[in-house]
């Protein structure tokens, strides 16, 4: 089952994820009918989830204010189902906005690329009917590399509501991105221009045909979950890489520089006819200074950074024989209301997911 869709709450969503995964050949670790944890067809990725609630302020412009109970999903990985369950109880890799009823959800996979599941949900926050959240888990697209594999769980950590009344440079970037900290990578860290201490990301380098040494010389240990941005370039903004790959700090999209920004901050070139789409790479790094070494291990499967300028949320773009669905990373608005108090927005930054039917 390469593509499925529906609506409902987080319980219905995760039940649909289970059905989709089983149809793709994932197995229920405890046997048929036991549900999560699940194991990928090749046995490399074990995944489980839990949820938790948090009472938080909601100052979304136009709303009633006050507090509400929000819900988050934790995404647990492990080399066994039992370890995935254990990690799901405490992992820092979470998806917010799970307290809302989803007006739509989309579940994507493609076994010809890698054994993965990507989910996009759309919902109303009570004021804005057009808010989105994305998460994904499974195995990286190795792009022809012959190492064993890397399992991952990640997603955008952006809240679909304003938790404070801050504005300007003090605006919390989890619901209204200050451009100097625009966290555009799928896990909110690839291409980050420094200034962050975490990333919404977990991964496991599998020991079979591992691409790097086991926990020495600064490289991650095999078969263990590494989370919160550990070992992932570039949580710390190493040297000048943030200026070449991502962006210099700037208060204006027009003044921003870097490969990532040229994709999501500018209009699509006329030659494409629609949008430009950029793969989201996965690098590990063996240190936190300019002398550290990077290792390229692949890309997040069938996901691309893009711009949603001139595109309707969920719109399908056809390139040759491929169909891609385009969504805002959080909520599409003009860039000129970035850093405005109470506004939920990700400007025109978007994500494209390949739809296989």
Can you walk me through this structure?
This protein has a seven-stranded antiparallel sheet, covered by helices on one side. The model is unreliable at 178-182, 188-196 and 234-251 (pLDDT under 50). It contains four helices and 17 strands. The chain is 10% helix and 33% strand. It has helices at residues 10-23, 81-88, 241-246, 259-264, and strands at residues 3-8, 27-28, 38-39, 46-57, 67-78, 94-95, 102-110, 114-123, 131-139, 150-155, 201-205, 226-227, 278-285, 294-307, 315-319, 322-328, 349-355. It has one domain (3-355).
Q: Describe the strand arrangement of the main beta sheet, using strand numbers.
A: 1-7-8-9-10-11-12
The whole-number mean of residue pLDDT values reads 84
- Percentage of residues in helical conformation: under 10%
Question: In angstroms, what separates the terminal alpha carbons?
Answer: 8 Å
How many discrete structural domains? 1
Which stretches are low in confidence, meaning pLDDT under 50 for 5 or more residues running?
178-182, 188-196, 234-251
Counting helices, strands and paired strands, the structural category is mainly beta
How is the main sheet built? 7 strands, antiparallel
- Radius of gyration, in angstroms, nearest whole number: 19 Å
Number of strands: 17
Note the beta-strand portion. Answer: 25-35%
Shape: globular
What would you say about this model in short?
By secondary structure, the chain is mainly beta. A hairpin with a 6-residue loop joins strand 3 (38-39) and strand 4 (46-57). The chain is built from 4 helices and 17 strands.
